[in-house]
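Explain this record to help learners:
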Amino acid sequence: MNRPPVLARAAGAIALATVTALGGVVAPPTVSAATVESPYVNPAEGLRNVLWVGNNWEGTADAVHPDGDFHRIARINIIPDRNERLVEIHRDPARLALYYGIRQMVGEGHDQYVDDMYSTKDGRNLIVSRPSFADVVSIDIVTGEIAWRFPVQGFRSDHMAVSPDGSQVAVSASTAKLVHVLDTATGREIGTFPSGDNAHENTYIKGGTQIVNESIGNVWTPLDQPWADVTKGERVLQFVDAETLQVIKRVDLRARLAEAGRPELSIGVRPMTFSPDYRFMYFQVSFFHGFIEYDIDADEITRIVDLPITPAGDVPREAHLLDSGHHGISMNPQGTKICVAGTMSDYATVVDRDTMQHGPLVSTGLKSYWVTTDLTGEHCFVSWAKSDKVSVLSFETGEEVAQIPVGYHPQRMRIGVAPQDWSGNPVPLPAPGSPLPVFS
């Protein structure tokens, strides 16, 4: 484990949700600390907020206006060096085998070009993890050129998180069972910390002093029944000191689920979100159509929320997409509503945090895959991976208020910034398909 330098940190299918009440306490609404700490609140002069949408199978990212008419500002090429990377891969037999294995088992027969992305605080660059190329790149938003590139350990990069001050990005190296922490300006590695099998999501909390990390295990295996749980490998939910990169606490989730009366649920943690005071964590787990409320301070599961399963989602475990039941959750900045992607059931819905009752099931696309929230708490955004669009849901009513056409197979979305007068860059968009490399 590497040690970084000391950093300054800023301070029925339509039925109501069935809640297993376990003594949960909901804190009074307040402005989310996560929103206050965001590098993108009150952007500097000459910048504007945008919603970045990663089109994973296309190798592009869309910049979308996050309010008003939600129009697309520009689409940029995330893989301008595709041929160079493919040449490298095809010259290394081990990498080539893993490259095609990941394409088939994780990418559903497609290359994964854009997993996660964050803009730099100054709006000059977009930092992107590219699973098929096992790297992280920083792309100059205006010129389209790659400013720096960092190859991760192992054969696949995955979810990322940016620190509140915008100086660091944490990226999961999923096959290497670790997380790299990089300097956003240079791509220099600051340090690493261990994770479990298939290191997955990361989130900076508490002013950037801690990183919450989880791993989801071997989601591509066909052995999905509970009796074969051991084949899923090591799955962790852990809290890491962001300065020393030492693991502070690993949650014994299997024990916590048993205490909550739900030992049958998976311990593979999926997307997560936090209450404004970081007292409670809300997360999804593999195969489960709902989410869990966890009291961080008490180390206790306080509520488990079962959400509807539609006919589309009423399928065997083996038919779940990479073990996901639901994959996407985000709380509004006020801490009163939770927006959820019901992935396998092809819906999105807004849940009241106090009562845990859900609103309308918005089913206007296929495979709702990610959720993110605007900075005001007015809207949440839901990507539909198999419909190539993003829905805008009202937190107040739970209804869809707009649809945004985007690129091929949108997944991750992040609020960020871009230059005020920017409308694209000169780099041509990638040709469709999965070409073979051209050797020079």
